[in-house]
Amino acid sequence: MLLKESPKIVKANARELSYSGRIDFTDPLAPIFIFPASSVTMIFKGSKLKALVKNRQSNYSTYIGYVLDGVEEKVILPSNKEVQKITLAENLNSDKQHEIVFFKRQDARCEFTFYGFIVDTESKISMPRKKYRKCMEFYGESAACGKSLEDIHCTNAVDLSNSYKYSNAWNSYAMMTARNLKAEVNIIAQEGIALLDNTGYFNAPQSIGMESIYDKLHFDFNTGEIVNWDFNRYIPQVVVIDIGQNDSIPENYMKEDLDSYKSINWRNHYKEFVLNIRRRYKNAFIVLTTTIIKHDSSWDRAIGLVCEEINDKKIVHFLYSCNGFGGDFHNSKWCAEEMSLELSLFLKGLGAEIWEK
């Protein structure tokens, strides 16, 4: 009750707030941020700013990112699962208009609930700029999540409990590509994920694949919190699928024999996954790719074969100049910038037609 009665609170359902990403709005006053780079934006005049948030997990350190007047920062969120008042700014110029973008740095292991912002009583709140006409969606893994992007020594690739502070989806290649193209974006990505269940790193040893989560809003299979996503809520014109880097775990069967039963089975599942995306978005331009994260080129050849078999002029196969020659687990920010530049130039080169609905 105290939160609702305070005149200083901009509630989460305020019309002045602009949201981006696949977010759970079941309770409009307490939206849940799940997927990487999901964000809320507000324009305000005032000298102080706080955010009201609650951690929804305690296994890993949860960091939240924000961009205030163009300057990016991060804060750690306590894991006690109580509503926290997180100070974002003090002593701002109260006569100046400020912009805050409050976003999710990490993957879906680190959910949090957002209740609103706290500002000065006399603060004036206004609508952010209109959203972009262009809309993108990414289905991917570590690179799209910005996994350990800020770990310049690459020392925490496997130790999730320590590496999470280095993850930053805001500077992932996916988010930078969207900014380059001035597009809204949903990033459906999870560190370590492969296409099929029981492969890849995510949730090992009972690994969960993209097949099982791409159509979900919540997919915490450990707690049983599984909620389907309504694809009518967001219709992208361009979709990027970068699955394939982690599919050789625990067995690199594609490298051993491109025509083995397991290899053919993977290609069949990959084809069906792509066609499922096509069924959801009948007019979307779909890019099939992997990333520069280290993997055998046989997986790219397999994707190329599937692309040829589908034979859809709006589904294409794209390879980066250093495809598969990066690090074992994650990209550096420099690599993400290079990937975003190459992908942005590729999409720009296709002309305005790909953005037509």
From TrEMBL:
Domain of life: Bacteria
Gene3D superfamilies in alphabetical order: Galactose-binding domain-like, SGNH hydrolase
Domain Carbohydrate esterase 2 N-terminal: 19-125
Sections of the chain in a coiled coil: none
Name of the protein described by the UniProt record: Electron transporter RnfD
